[in-house]
Amino acid sequence: MTLKLTKYKDINEFYKRVYPFLIKKEAENNLPLGLLNSIKSGSRYNNPLLVSAENEDGSIKGAFIMTPPHNLVSVLQINDGEYSTIAQELNTLLSEEGIEVPGFVSEKVSAEKLTQAWCNLKGCEHEIGMDQRIYKLDHVNEIEIPEGKLIQPDERHLTLLSDWIKCFTVETGVRPLTESEALERAEDMIANENYLYFWEADGEPVSMARGGRWTDNGITVNFVYTPKPFRKKGYASAVVAGLSSKLLEEYKFCTLYTDLENPTSNKIYMDIGYVPVCDSLMVNIK
């Protein structure tokens, strides 16, 4: 069958078209589903790129979502031989729109095949931005927790949160934020987000984590960050375990992404109760 790509301007129409396809693997597809919900609610992201891939019979075989300047998120269920067709169709569509793709985020095998087809077509090079694993949790194990407590940041913590956001983006290899961008993001998070928490020890914030990108039954834990002076003291475990417990009061499960090159964080999450569901790849196009 011939694959066809369709670009959508109406988020509601796109949602109805691709949602049944994505929800079949809710935990694995937490990123595209979470992005769809955020776009649909109007809480974030202007002018997103929304593209479906379908067979001649109209059945959905894939979805692409991009929120510039971030990488293109893709979910594809196609044969190996169809990646070159997808790359060609995608290139035509993006060229007509004047859109450049900075990279891809997808399930690992699919990301590798799409990147290879894309670079063969475009004559470009690529690099691995992050080798990732997606985890899922439906209960929190009993683990040893250091002295301290969960707190929600407020205006007093604005400068601290802004600094931590900047450091987080640098250390995780995503697009670094300027001081003004980080401050704006911190202001928005404190004012509008319900699931942003610090772990406080001896009256001082020492680690943070955030719940965001909800799906029908789950929510993603992200922005897990501990400044270097406070690492290897159990604070990251404490804030993630505490936040995850709170989230499970409202959701059936939590998900999170990890960097496979950081064995410490992967062990921390598994000790808490997170179980691997699939591997993912962030690829940067050069």
Automatic annotation (TrEMBL):
Domain of life: Bacteria
Pfam families noted in UniProt: Acetyltransf_1 (PF00583)
Domain N-acetyltransferase: 153-286
Protein name as annotated: GNAT family N-acetyltransferase
Higher taxonomy: Bacteria, Bacillati, Bacillota, Bacilli, Bacillales
